[in-house]
Questin oxidase family protein (Streptomyces coelicolor), 345 residues
Amino acid sequence: MGTDGTLDEALERLYRTGPEFGGRLSNHGPMAVESMVRRGHARQVHRWLDLYMRRLDERPRGGCPIPAVGWRSALGDPRRLGDWLAFFDREVTEQPWRAVLEVWWPRLVPGIAAGATHGVIRTGHAVHALLAHEDGPRLAELGQALGYWAARWQQVPSAAPSGTSGPASALAGVPRIADQSADIDHRLGQLTGLSGWPAALAALRPAADAGQARDLLAGLTTAAAVRYLPNAHGSPVMLIHSATAPMAVLRTLPALPSTQWVVSLHAAWAASAAVTAAYAPAAPLPRHALPTAHRSAEETFALAVRHQDEHVIKLADTCLDVHRRTGCPDALAAVTRAIELIDEP
C-alpha cells in the first residue's frame, strides 16, 4: 500500500475520535501520523495508532448548529466543540478548502493559543497533507482541525513587531512569568501584567512585505528549535510548542494569500514568545551538559518513532525541517534531548 493510502486510512480511523481526551489533553494522532508518513515511516503508523487510540475519547456530537452568520458568539466556547466540528465538516465539503482557509484563517489566527497552540499545529499538518494530495480524508481532517481551533480559540496579549532584533535575539529577550506552578491558562493569564512583555514582543524587527514575513517566520522556527536544547528542562513537553506552532504557520503560508503572511508572522511570534514566557527555566544548561548530534537526520527521526511519544515525533518533524534549511546540528540534538527527558508511552 502506498504512503498516501496509509495516511488516509489513519485519518479515517482518527476521524471517529475527539480532538481532546482525558479532560483537555490534545489528540496528537493526526499530527504524528502525518509526520511519520511524510518522513518515510508509513509501515509503523497503524501499529503506533493501535496503541495511541486506546487513550482517545469519541468525537463529541453537536447539539446546536453554528450559523454562517452569528458565529462569533460561539468562538472560543469549548462547550460547542461538537457544533464547530460539524460546521467545518460542511464547510470543507461544500467549498474549496483553500477558500475556507482564506476566510477562516484571519478569524482564527488571533486566537492562536487555542488548545495550547494545538489548534494551529493540527491545522498546519492538515494543510501540509492537502498541499501534497487532496482527497476526502484529508479534507475531513482539515475540518476537524479548524473546528477544534474555533472551539478553543484563545488570544494572548500581543504587540506588533517594531524593533531591530532578529528572531533568536528577540526570543532570548522574552521575560518569564513569575508563577510557573499551574496549568497553561493560569500561566498565559499572567502575560497581561508581565513587566517587559509588550517591549519584548515589539523587539522583533517588522516585516516590510510577505517575503520578509516568511523569512522571519522561518528564522523563528529555527531559533525556537535550537533554544529548546539548553532550555528543555523547564518543561520538556510544553516548550516543544514554541517551535512547532510557528512551524505550523510557516507550512500553511503557501495555501494562504500573501496579504495574510505578515499578520500570520505576528500571531506565530506571539504564540512562541508566550510559550517561552510560560515555561522557560530560570537558566539554560551549559553546553557541556547537553547532547550533541551524532546521528543523521533520518536516523534521528527513526529514533523518535521508536521512542513513540507523540510530542517527540512532532518535535523531530520540525527539527528536521530546520536542519534541512540551516544545517544546524543543534536542531537534531534537540530531538535527542527531548528523548532523554520525555518518558516513553
